[in-house]
């Protein structure tokens, strides 16, 4: 029961982190400033929370299904991507915008790969809500790619479009993480009641 609870808690903690990050992206869009300290501080915290949630999920998955290599690797990759994104926000706050943006691009790409692997693993697993969990992870994967595309726009001096694309990607990640958390929770409640 404890490993499954770790996975459920991790999923909701990750969803909370995506919400905090999306809030930071919203501040950046409203202020029209990629270097906004408040927005980047929220992104730093949000990505850190997401990384913690992903780590809990990876530990839980390792205990529940040690043969689920894609799901375990995917959760760890998402965690690594989030840690990279947190550090990227820290670099931007310190005034190293270009370095921070390149790190953010790398972190988002790693997150996307991790979420995609988790999406595939849910389809192959035995969750009662496997399809919903898979769709949630796929939405997270697409959201992370959108954030990376937004960064490319910013690096090409298209700030207004870039920050809007980044924000939309963060909203997609929030929606995806929430769908996945709901699916994992439903499975936990169904499994525990039988």
How is the topology of this model organized?
Blueprint: H1 2-31, H2 37-64, H3 69-93, H4 97-124, H5 130-155, H6 159-193
Can you give a write-up of this model?
The protein is 89% helix and 0% strand. It has 194 residues and is an all-alpha fold. It has one domain. Helix 3 packs antiparallel against helix 4. The mean pLDDT is 96.
Low-confidence stretches: none
How many domain regions? 1
Mean pLDDT: 96
Radius of gyration: 16 Å
Basic shape = elongated
Helix content: over 70%
Span of the ends, CA to CA: 13 Å
Q: What structural keywords apply?
A:
mainly alpha, elongated, about 190 residues, about 90% helix
In short:
This protein is mainly alpha-helical. The chain is built from 6 helices and no strands.
């Amino acid at each position: 029961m404890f490993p499954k609870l770790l996975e459920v808690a991790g999923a909701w903690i990750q969803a909370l982190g995506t919400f905090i990050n999306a809030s930071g992206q919203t501040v950046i869009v409203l202020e029209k400033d990629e270097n906004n300290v408040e927005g980047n501080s929220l992104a730093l915290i949000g990505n850190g929370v997401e990384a913690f949630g992903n780590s809990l999920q990876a530990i839980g998955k390792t205990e529940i299904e040690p043969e689920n290599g894609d799901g375990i690797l995917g959760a760890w990759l998402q965690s690594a991507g989030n840690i990279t994104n947190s550090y990227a926000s820290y670099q931007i706050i310190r005034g190293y915008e270009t370095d921070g943006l390149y790190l953010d691009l790398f972190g988002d790409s790693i997150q996307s790969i991790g979420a995609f692997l988790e999406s595939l693993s849910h389809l192959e697993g035995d969750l009662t809500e496997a399809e919903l969990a898979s769709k949630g992870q796929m939405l997270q994967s697409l959201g992370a790619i959108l954030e990376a595309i937004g960064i490319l726009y910013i690096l090409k001096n298209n700030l207004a479009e870039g920050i809007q694309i980044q924000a939309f990607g963060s909203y997609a990640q929030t929606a995806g993480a929430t769908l996945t958390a709901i699916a994992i929770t439903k499975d936990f409640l169904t499994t525990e009641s039988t």
